[in-house]
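Input sequence (159 aa), recorded before submission:
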Amino acid sequence: MKITVICVGKLKERHWKEACQDYLLRLRPYCQMELIELADEPIVENASPAQEEAVKNKEGKKILSKLPQGAYVVSFDGHGKEVDSPGFAAFLESGFVRGGSHIVFLIGGSLGLSEEVKQKADASIRFGAMTFPHNLARVMALEQIYRAFRILRHEPYHK
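Predicted structure, token format:
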């Protein structure tokens, strides 16, 4: 099993990097894990909707260039399906069945994902109705992937 997380933006703060590294280490026994960080596009303050769309499209082209052939692609998007942790575990398990042995998760930049990327995704998931910091989304994604493997293997995990 292979999981790739493609995300826009580099983590600058040490605490976000350390949290991600912790979950990447925890995931090693469960799957082959790859994290691909893509540079985000600069955006001017008070950008117009057209400027924001242009930024998302440029970032989207970068994401699309990294998508491996034949993988099952899942976007993390605020308009996706909301699932609880056991539901996400079941989704992950069925994703391996649908996508062979490779699932790719996509996390857009601070403005989100382009429409082209959203259309390319086989499924879309959201963390919930609340807004979270962009850097936290990566940590939350890795944590939920780790939790899903623990659930699928009936291993204990804190609640």
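Checked by second reader. The first strand starts at residue 2 and ends at 8.
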